[in-house]
Amino acid sequence: MKILVADDHPLTLNGTVSYLTNLGYNIVNACSNGTAALNYIQVYLPDVAVLDLNMPGLDGLEVAKKVIENKWRTKVVILTMHNEIGVLNKAKEFEVDGYILKEKACPDLEKCMKEIALGKKYYSGSLLQNYTIEHTDDLGKLNLLTLSERKIIELIAAQKTSKQIAELLFLSEKTVEGHRTRIIEKLGIPKEKNALLIWAIQNYKKSL
């Protein structure tokens, strides 16, 4: 089985590569951003792509969406710290073949690879134990957002300013403001003072 691994954290990337190599899998490429991962998948079509969720360029779910849209044969496994119902539902929408929490990575990733080899999907057991998957109006709206936008609205709900969000996410304040504008457009929020803050406080926590 030929596997691509993508993660923007060097330690996690190297650890995942080493772990899968020790299990006997063939790691054909390791990269640190979603754009590089997508480009490699498009050209070489590895059997499996193990992708971090939050990466520069494209996040893991955006890459998964492209794989589904283009009907490429590469199986996508998301490896993440996000144990959130909204993210999990988005992963299911894009038909990812595996969703593994980093806290359970060692046993679950091995199980996932075995299930994929059998043509099955694998999701970390703790996800299934913790959540009843159901779509609500609030969740449906949040699912319109990218992972970067979801993180920003989470911080807005915590009443962080654009400057504080920029510092926390290592972005420019202008970039954060651009994200806020796109979030308002996607969610259909009135362009009024504090409208996004009010929406975030009222709705974000309900969707978790």
Helix and strand content put the structural class at alpha/beta
Q: Which term fits the overall shape?
A: elongated
Tell me the major beta sheet.
6 strands, parallel
Taking all residues together, what is the mean pLDDT? 86
What is the succession of H and E elements?
A: EHEHEHEHEHEHHHHHH
- How many strands? 6
| Total number of helices | 11
Distance between the first and last residues' Cα: 36 Å
Gyration radius, in Å: 18 Å
Strand content: 5-15%
Summarize the amount of helix as a percent range: 40-55%
Strand line-up across the major sheet: 2-1-3-4-5-6
Assembly state (oligomeric): single chain
Low-confidence stretches: 128-138
Structure notes:
This protein is α/β, with parallel strands linked by helices. The protein contains eleven helices and six strands. The protein has a six-stranded parallel beta sheet, sandwiched between helices. β5, α5 and β6 (122-123) form a beta-alpha-beta unit. The longest helix is centred in the C-terminal third of the chain and has 15 residues, at 173-187. It is elongated and about 55 Å long. The protein starts with a strand and ends in a 5-residue tail after the last helix.
What is the element layout, followed by pairings?
Layout lengths: L1 E5 L3 H13 L3 E6 L2 H11 L3 E5 L7 H10 L5 E6 L4 H9 L4 E4 L3 H13 L4 E2 L1 H6 L6 H6 L4 H11 L4 H8 L3 H15 L7 H9 L5
Parallel strand pairs: 1-2, 1-3, 3-4, 4-5, 5-6
Helix pairs in contact: 2-3, 8-10, 8-11, 9-10
